[in-house]
């Protein structure tokens, strides 16, 4: 076997994904809903941040929008949930576009 095949087999066995072989992100489920129903509520927003990678959470927030105001309490909850700065910035930008 060639070195490339051996390395690929090793990476697959270790469950390591190579960026060149990754599929693009799947579309956001909110796109199947009417535009008025797409923005995330507070609880759904926090769930997205808890259950998705930071990159996926940012993508979903930018795609679907946010339906709540960014208060100090919400910003604190976002940080307590572990939201990265780029995710919080996406929330701010989504609110500015609304």
**What does the overall shape look like?**
globular
Number of discrete helical segments = 5
- What is the strand content? under 5%
Q: What average pLDDT do the residues reach?
A: 83
Compute the gyration radius: what is it?
Answer: 18 Å
The count of strands amounts to 0
List the uncertain runs: 16-23
Structural class label: mainly alpha
One letter per element, helices H and strands E, the order comes to HHHHH
Separation, N- and C-terminal Cα atoms: 55 Å
Largest sheet, in brief, is:
none
The helix content is: 55-70%
Number of domains: 1
Detailed description of the structure:
The chain has 98 residues and is mainly alpha-helical. It has one domain. 56% of the residues lie in helices and 0% in strands. It contains five helices and no strands. It has helices spanning 3-13, 42-51, 54-64, 72-81, 85-97. The radius of gyration is 18 Å and the shape is globular. The N and C termini lie far apart (55 Å). The relative contact order is 0.13.
Distinctive features:
single chain, 98 residues, mainly alpha, 5 helices
Quick recap of the structure?
The chain has 98 residues and is mostly helical. It has helices spanning 3-13, 42-51, 54-64, 72-81, 85-97.
How are the SSEs ordered, and which strands pair?
Layout: H1 3-13, H2 42-51, H3 54-64, H4 72-81, H5 85-97
């Amino acid at each position: 076997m060639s070195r490339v095949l051996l390395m690929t087999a090793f990476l697959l066995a270790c469950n390591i994904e190579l960026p060149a072989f990754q599929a693009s992100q799947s579309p956001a489920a909110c796109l199947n809903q009417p535009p008025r129903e797409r923005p995330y509520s507070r609880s759904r927003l926090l769930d997205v941040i808890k259950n998705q990678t930071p990159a996926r959470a940012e993508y979903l927030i930018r795609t679907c929008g946010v339906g709540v105001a960014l208060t100090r309490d919400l910003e604190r909850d976002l940080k307590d949930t572990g939201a990265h700065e780029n995710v919080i910035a996406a929330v701010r930008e989504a609110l500015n576009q609304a």
